[in-house]
Amino acid sequence: MPLSQPRTDALVDRAVAGDPAAIASLVQAHGPLVYSLSRRLTPDADDAYQEVWEKVLKALPRFDPGGSASIRTWIVTITHRHLVDRHRRRQVRGEIVPLTGLAAHQEAPGVALDRGRRQARLERALRTLPEPQRRVVVLHHVQGLSLQDIAATERVAVGTLKSRLHRGRAALARRLGATP
Amino acid sequence: MTDHEQLSMLLDGELAEPEAQALQDRIAAEPALAQVWATMQALPAALADLPELAPPPELDALVLGDPQALQHASPARWTWAPLALMAAVVLLAFWPRPAPEVLIVTGHQRLSGELSLLAGDVRVELDGEADLFVEPVNPLLRESAPEDPTMTKKQLLAGLAGAAVTVIVYEGTAVLHAADADPVALGAGDQHTLRAQDDPTAAPIARTTRTAAGDDAEALQAEIASLNEQLEAARFHQAMAKGQLASHEGTPQPWPDDLPEALRPDAFSAAVAAAMEGFDDLELVSVECDEFPCFAVIESNNRTEEWGDQLDAVGERLSDAYKETLGTDDVGTGHWRSHYGEDGVDVRIEGMVLGTPEMADDDTKTRTSFRVDSTMKDLAEDRMAEETQAAEE
After folding, report:
1. SS3 letters for A114-140?
2. To which H or E segment does residue A148 belong?
3. How remote is the C-alpha of B70 from its chain's centroid?
4. pLDDT tens-digit profile of B223-280?
5. Which residue of B has its CA nearest to A170?
6. Distances in whole angstroms, Cα of residue A64 to Cα of each of A24, A74, A82, A152
7. Which residues of chain A are within 8 Å of residue B295 when distances are taken between CB atoms?
8. ipTM greater than 0.85, yes or no?
């Protein structure tokens, strides 16, 4: 999913200025991005989704519409950081229990789930990866982030990320067999 | 390295020419490997083609605090959508552990695995999969200061006394322990609700019911008001949980304006690297400087009993170097050293912090300890997962 959309527009400017309607539009426009990352990268997506938006909306006045990052890239970065933080907190306090499974959400009303059998298989295979591997696979291949950008947010060496990426892709290829 | 990992590297052009050629020859000669290679080549496009997933409408409504939007949420979710926000889970166990201890504050959670948890004042022992619902919010909590980090777990639990706890077991077994009552054992397919004894201080349970389209608008408004009340309570609970966490995690520390240059990230990284010179068994995994102070994470490949000696030596070198640089003896190193091992997997990690007067206050120590501890456990889990996966392959 490319991140190279127009860097900013009037909607963002209005949202940054605190216009409620613009903020609602912003949530609507980028909600699928945040939710996709939350669903794919954390076992408790609904909580993560709300927490990310809480952070995004709180930080919105500090977003610079004239800066180098697009609003989409900015939101991805906040989401990524938050999910890494959640993962680390879980390591400290114990294992978080898996919540609603993928199959259940596929049936949830209002959720766009027009995906083919191959995509469903790929989603299931993704969920079997350890979280650090899944993060780099999803952020690099699904969201199109560079390994350098991911490494900067995760605060690990690019070499470490490459190792995770290769292990993650190897596991995916093994689980998908000959028909990814 | 497995064939699959080598193919992944081949895909990125990261194999040296002789290795790449050898692998290409094998792909040409081995149909099974050729199939894996085709799968690997197709992976990036398949991943990039994954669609974005739209959030359920009520989630956005919660984000925006929009009751009108909640009106349009699916009826089945009405009862629990606001309560989903209440699902603030405070996990109390420390890793590694066989069965995590979980404190469910209130709300609805799908649970699976071997768990021991507190739901209100009911202890639930689960080995399997179950849904758990906890309601309502006791008004005692509302009278307490939100985000009060001094509130103890005991006070929190006391405030939650009076909750009704419902467990529905899908797989395995669950045992419910309530005060002054015999334990209740449940098997797959069982559902049981434990209601607290009448509590004169408790607010009435704000139950919502489904309202068909066209029903009386007044009833709908009352239902929305009830949902908003629950939402407000949920936010309070979330704040409570965050307050509890803050006392454990400390608060992020700003970088002091007058911090010596030698203690800033680049200089610290260079100093650690210099202190590690000559120790081939040690690898500097990362230097974490997202908050003050920096700390180093070092992995040891020394599998002897003396592995800690090398790390002690690095600490001494680092400490000595800083004593000289800063011109004071009031410098030392802090070490978080962990050895994780099970089923043939062996991971040895150290978090190393330089102790200076700038980081002597309790909050900085608490925060630093939390950061180092969580980073090391994250790394350890990552390493162990990788090694386990490699062993499986």
Report:
1. CCCHHHHHHHHHHHCCCHHHHHHHHHH
2. helix A147-154
3. 29
4. 666 676 666 666 655 555 555 555 556 778 888 888 889 999 989 999 999 999 999 8
5. B4
6. 19, 10, 20, 20
7. none
8. no
Q: Are residues A87 and A175 in the same domain?
A: no
Identity of the highest mean pLDDT range in A4-18, A138-152, B325-339: A138-152
Global pTM? Answer: 0.42
The answer to whether B157 touches B177, Cβ cutoff 8 Å, is no
What CATH number corresponds to the domain at position A142? 1.10.10.10
B39 touching A (Cβ < 8 Å): yes
Element (H, E) at B185: strand B184-186
Q: What is the DSSP letter of B147?
A: T
Q: In angstroms, what is the C-alpha Rg of chain B?
A: 27
Interface mutation target, options B50, B111, B349, chain A, most CBs of A under 10 Å: B50
Report pLDDT for B276.
Answer: 94
Cβ separation B91–A163 shorter than 8 A = no
Q: Tell me, yes or no, whether A53 and A130 share the same domain.
A: no
What is residue A108's predicted lDDT score, i.e. its pLDDT?
Answer: 30
At position A33, the amino acid (one-letter code) is: L
Q: Is A54 an 8 Å CB contact of chain B?
A: yes
